[in-house]
Known about the structure:
The chain has helices spanning 53-66, 79-87, 102-106, 130-136, 140-147, 177-185, 200-209, 258-267, 289-299, 301-309, 317-328; strands spanning 33-35, 39-48, 69-76, 93-96, 109-124, 168-172, 196-198, 214-219, 235-237, 275-283. It is α/β, with parallel strands linked by helices. Strands 1, 2, 3, 4, 5, 6, 7, 8, 9 and 10 form a 10-stranded mixed sheet that branches.
Amino acid sequence: MQIKRLQTPFKGALVSILAAFLLSACSPGRHQKYDPEEGYSGTLSISGAFALYPMAVLWAEDFKKENPNVRFNVSAGGAGKGISDVLSNMVDIGLVSRELHQVEVERGALPIVVGYDAVISIINRAHPDFDLLQERGLTQAELKSIFLEKGVKTWKEIDARLVDRPIEVYTRSDAAGAAETWAKYLGATQEELRGIGIFGDPGLAQAVRDNPLAIGFSNVNFVYDLKTRKFSEGVHVLPLDLNANGRVEDQEQFYETLDKLMHAVAEGAYPSPPARELYFVLHRDRPSALLNAFVRFVLAKEQQNYLSENGYVPLEKEKIEQQIHKIDATKH
């Protein structure tokens, strides 16, 4: 199977959230059947996290090659929408990029881990103190003072060597896995994050790109170019000073390329959070043969290989077996 590469996220299909598929009004799980010669038929509806949307599109395209009578409706609108849609019987699969809340599990949410990625802090490449910020990074405490506390208003208040200009903080306006994961790293909730609210990863990354004094956070695939594996034009990571010694040391410097960062996520060198698991969330009380077949397809080795090619980390064998066991437990 030829591995596909996604376009740079700010171009083409990912900017137009419904570019590949349109969300229909069909109820999930209807008219599904299996034929030994033609495979499965029916409709699967999927919605949720921007982080998983591109992979959901790729996986759906490949599953449809083997099962041409299956129709997929895939849309992105944030992790909060994904979990809400699956629990309200609007879709078969919610794309979720944060840990589930206990109340969601109690309502029937079944999380299936399908890969890993990370949220990173980002700044504008034209920041007046870009080189210094790359050398020193920011500590967790300094990031808290920017994103959570009202006392720090200028870059100079972080470090006397930095410009005496306002820190322009951007956050997510939608219920987002990236925002909740970033907030968790800072010991808070998404509701406690301060800043100008922007909808979606593409919009937030673009807002930072347009403002030299900006700081924000994003899924990695909206910061790196998937073809060059390096940073997209105008936006750059703000490194984490993990040991809080005032500089980014060699063991903390794993941002140069997308592959290097994903290796750090896989090895645990980049902390979790903001590294995270990515989920397909099903409704525990609505299993179907087609749904189970598609999730198993996604967990297969060939499809997991897509993750590395497209800026994610695939699951290890033991983790895959655990997810399959959860799927099997939903069968009637």
